[in-house]
Amino acid sequence: MPKRPHVLMLFLDGVGIGRKDPTTNPFFFEKLYTLSNLLHDDIPHKKDSQRFYSDVSLVPLNATLGVRGLPQSGTGQTALFTGKNAARIINKHFGPYPYSSLRPIIERYNIFHRLSTIGRSVYFANAYPQKYFEHLKLNQSRQTVTSMSWKMAGFELNDSRSLDNGQGISADITNEGWAKLGYPKITVITPQQAGQNFVDLTNEYDFVLFEYFLTDRAGHSQSMNEAVIVLKKFDDFLSGILNSFDDRSMLLLITSDHGNIEDLSTKSHTRNPVPLIALGAYHQRFVKDLTSLIHVTPRILHLYQ
Q: At what angle do helices 145-152 and 73-82 cross, to 10 degrees?
């Protein structure tokens, strides 16, 4: 067992643990074969939300952070990626972007910065088109916590060139949307190939993060068809990861910031707990006593101490 495993983190925006109801919860509407196999054909739901097996663990994390109202991305992601209770600090849930007074906290405590200061190599795998960089020039405050954290840690975001060399991953996983953004020559790849590319990044980095926001968008759409398409693409991406995943030297973490897609009966977010799935090296130790979003970053840091 390695002393310091490579950590691969999949952040799925807006994914909670909902009811076992196929009419509103896409996780029970159509089978996601890779996720189902990973969890021993035992998808969690509100009445049965923990899974502990020899190869994988899953625990529910509280996303309400002890604050009234519906959890939001700005405060939820700040809590997840800094270990600080952002909602309690500003006494409300806020999103989709972080509240202005949270920026110093993100800058000081974000996972990329803190791992870098202890000598660990980090990587944010998402790639962005030129339109996104032009957007940032006009309004720096309209950044998600992930991209803001990466830039505050002193790094540059990936652009289209990273897709060509396999060093970046598109927000839609397969690069299909890039042609409409003015990149007709970007090669479309399979979700499985994207998963392979994600794992390959551990050859260079100790900690690698990928953010998949389409789950949150699908939740807001209240469309079962869109939700299933988005989740199936993630499931195929996960398949590509597991095909080359080394559970002796790697730790895969899958989690979210708040609930949404698991309850298509509502257009808003939910108060449901979010899953934390851990697979590979130290997975049982990692999830021990984890109950909240604020526990994840400190536990990752502990791996490298």
A: 40
